Amino acid sequence: MSRDFYELCYNQYKQEHADADSLYQKAGILLLVFPLLVTIMVKIGRHDIIRLVFIRIDVFFFYLAIVAGCLTVVGGVAFLFWSIYPRSKYKNIASMDHWLKWRQDYLKWLKDKKEKTESENEDATDLALFENINPLLAEAQSANSTLNEKRRKAFQRSVLIAAIALIFVGVQAVFYLILKLQGV
What we know:
The protein has about 180 residues and is an all-alpha fold. The chain has helices at about 5-45, 55-85, 95-115, 120-180.
């Protein structure tokens, strides 16, 4: 395997971890948006006219917007949770301490065989390390890429649902205004 392939895999591996971190930062915004939407729904919600739900169509639509808004917020929070939860499933390559120990052990093993010079042993150790770490990087990058794509889709759904919830809050606000203007 070439050094270029190693660099490609390593750069992609780092990028997938950076993308995951970026998603956490973006999720913080939605963690503020959903409670804000619920607060607005509760603030303009009215409990004194619930008896008129099946009598007046405007009251019915007012409460329908509240229920729909609450359901979309719950769905949005579920997708948001799904987008930030599975971080533990990420594939990682072993720590640098592990690879350093592996390199030292392999170098010691080559020296004990006494078949090559010290310089040749160093080169052989570096090549063996390179050949061992490349497949692990490629495998981890591939698995992390798939997981990040699922997380991105869940986050996008959460954003879409937040927008839909905002529409329901707007509908609720319009009917709240209509009811107030009618003196109900």
